[in-house]
Amino acid sequence: MPFAFAITALIVLVIAPSPAIARVCPAGSEPRISAELYFGRSIGESLGVTEETWAKFVDEDVTPRFPDGLSVFEIKGQWRDTGSGRIVRETGKVLKLVFTGDAPGKAKVAEMVEIYKKRHQQQSVLVTTADVCAAF
After folding, report:
1. Cα–Cα dist 121/110, whole Å
2. How far is CA 86 from CA 33, 43, 53, 79, 121, in A?
């Protein structure tokens, strides 16, 4: 029984939402979430997401969800293909967003990821987030 209790307690700790941490920001700044989304541009062995296709994605799918601003960086990266296990190198884009971190904002990020994956046949889009203080 102690083992079962320990496993149950561990599961509760893993899936239970953590308490909100009250971030104290310097005067003139506010708590925000900084999100970086890493988008690959290859489809199979070739570049499938052209600059024009990327610009259309930003204009039609990103900007309406985050009209207050964003940044885009060019990257060269690599990842392990989950099917073949081989290392794939490709160019990509990092989309940087800073937003309030509310549930609608998080849902918008998830929507963009799903749109991109389906439209451009991507296995995944890496998303990282961090609590930050921001001043505009």
Report:
1. 16
2. 33, 15, 27, 8, 18
Q: pLDDT tens digits for 113-125?
A: 999 999 998 988 9
CA distances from 45 to 7, 40, 48, 135 (A): 44, 12, 9, 42
Residue whose structure tokens are 């259309």: 56
State pTM to two decimals. Answer: 0.79
Residues 6+ apart with CB under 8 A from 135: 26, 28, 29, 30
**Could you tell me if 54 and 41 are in contact, meaning their C-beta atoms sit under 8 angstroms apart?**
yes
Q: What is the C-alpha separation between 100 and 131, in angstroms, rounded?
A: 10
pLDDT confidence of residue 75: 96
CB contact at 8 A, 90 and 42 = yes
Structure-block tokens of residue 113:
């990821």
In our burial notation (b when 16+ CB lie closer than 10 A, e otherwise), range 6-24 reads: eeeeeeeeeeeeeeeeeee
Helix intervals (H) in the chain: 2-15, 51-57, 103-119
